[in-house]
Write a structure and sequence with these properties.
Elements: H1 6-14, H2 27-35, H3 53-116, H4 159-236, E1 280-281, E2 294-297, E3 312-315, H5 316-325, E4 327-329, E5 336-338, H6 340-345, E6 349-356, E7 362-369
Parallel strand pairs: 1-2
Antiparallel strand pairs: 2-3, 4-5, 6-7
Helix pairs in contact: 1-3, 1-4, 2-3, 3-4
Length: 374
């Protein structure tokens, strides 16, 4: 990085070999200064004809300190960028997985409606979803295709059977349309959660990187000031030596050496979700309400991670069954976990066995079981 070259430039700016030979040993001072995140400028008052050893020692310590300091700060920024990028990628991957699952449900629903209307075949349906998918399948009653089959000895279905089928189809279509609308609304909500989560990460990282950048800029400014003091002091003694100047503009915010977080800015908190809003709760829904209605559990924090799991949506009848049996769904939505109610319904049972040890002393061994799980 550009800032990493500062120490090399300073070596050319401050060192005064023409006025003294010994540089001294400033190793201990370097590490003390770095630990305090502050490098002490060399004292230009020490520049005197024939007596520059003390100043040269300070210059070496300052150059070493500043080089280590800038390198450490750049490494911090690199780690912060990498960590933020990794978290954002995880959020995006999780959101895309949920969206694909919901899109599969939508495509399936559309094909089911087309099948009922005679415009598609069963073979066009995508594979069935897993039991713990992020979005449930519809519970709309399909028209009975058996009504379209001719009765025995007849060439066509009766008018009464066709009318019944048409009534069923007319009821099925709006039910599926409502389901598709809810699914599309859930996609918008998943996107909104992902955008908000990414924004929180960038809002957390950007100020910290700016703070580090400003501290480095201040350190460079002090180096430029020390360079000027050195030049003025040398000139006061009519020394033939000259010094190159730093380019402070190269290290100003937005300049050639500035540091800026390049992570994407994925949106704002003011995300509007249109369509049918699905009921949502922070904890697992209990299934209260219309059994056919869809309710969702808000994303929960994943174990050992700052990331959030997916939003889980199910029909109330499924939530009610899980709640009744004492089960919950893991934060990542991949498996069932025992809730407090499950532990109540399946109390721990312990069995003790009396044995005798090898030296003849009595022992009691106890084995406990939490009951049967799925």
């Amino acid at each position: 990085m550009r800032l990493f070259a500062i120490a090399l430039i300073l070596l050319q700016l401050f060192y005064l070999p023409a006025l003294g030979q010994s540089t001294g040993n400033a190793g201990a001072a370097v590490f003390d200064a770095v630990s305090q995140r502050k490098c002490s400028k060399p004292d230009s008052e020490l520049i005197k004809p024939g007596t520059t050893d003390a100043y040269n020692a300070q210059v070496k310590g300052f150059n070493d300190c500043l080089r280590i300091y800038v390198q450490n700060e750049n490494n911090k920024i690199t780690r912060m960028r990498a960590d933020a990028s990794s978290e954002i990628d995880g959020i995006k991957d999780s959101a895309l997985s949920q969206i694909r699952d919901i899109e599969r449900a939508i495509n399936t629903a559309i094909i089911e409606v087309n099948i009922a209307n005679g415009g598609a075949q069963e073979s066009e349906l995508p594979p069935l979803a897993t039991a713990l998918s992020a979005f449930p399948d519809p519970v709309c009653n399909k028209p009975d295709v058996a009504l379209l089959a001719p009765a025995k000895g007849k060439k066509a279905a009766s008018l009464q059977a066709l009318d019944r089928y048409e009534l069923q189809r007319r009821a099925y279509e709006p039910c599926m349309s409502s389901y598709i609308t809810q699914a599309k609304s859930e996609i918008l909500r998943v996107k909104a959660y992902a955008e908000l989560a990414c924004k929180r990460i960038t809002d957390d990282v950007n100020p910290r990187i700016t703070e580090i950048n400003n501290a480095v800029i201040q350190a460079v400014a002090e180096a430029v000031q020390a360079s000027g003091e050195r030049d003025a002091r040398v000139s006061a003694f009519h020394s033939p030596m000259t010094a190159q100047g730093l380019d402070p503009a190269a290290y100003q915010p937005g300049g050639r050496g500035s540091i800026a977080f390049q992570a994407p800015q994925p949106g704002t908190e003011n995300v509007t979700v249109t369509g049918d809003r699905l009921p949502q709760s922070a904890d697992m829904p209990t299934g209260v309400g219309d059994p056919d209605a869809i309710s969702c559990r808000a994303p929960q924090a994943l174990t050992d991670s700052r990331l959030m799991g997916p939003e889980i949506c199910k029909h109330n009848r499924d939530w009610a069954k899980l709640y009744k049996e004492g089960w919950n769904i893991s934060p990542d939505g991949s498996h069932l976990v025992a809730a407090e109610k499950w532990l109540t319904l399946h109390p721990q049972t312990c069995i003790s066995h009396n044995t005798v040890s090898s030296n003849g002393a009595p022992e009691v061994n106890t084995f406990c079981n939490q009951g049967d799980r799925y």
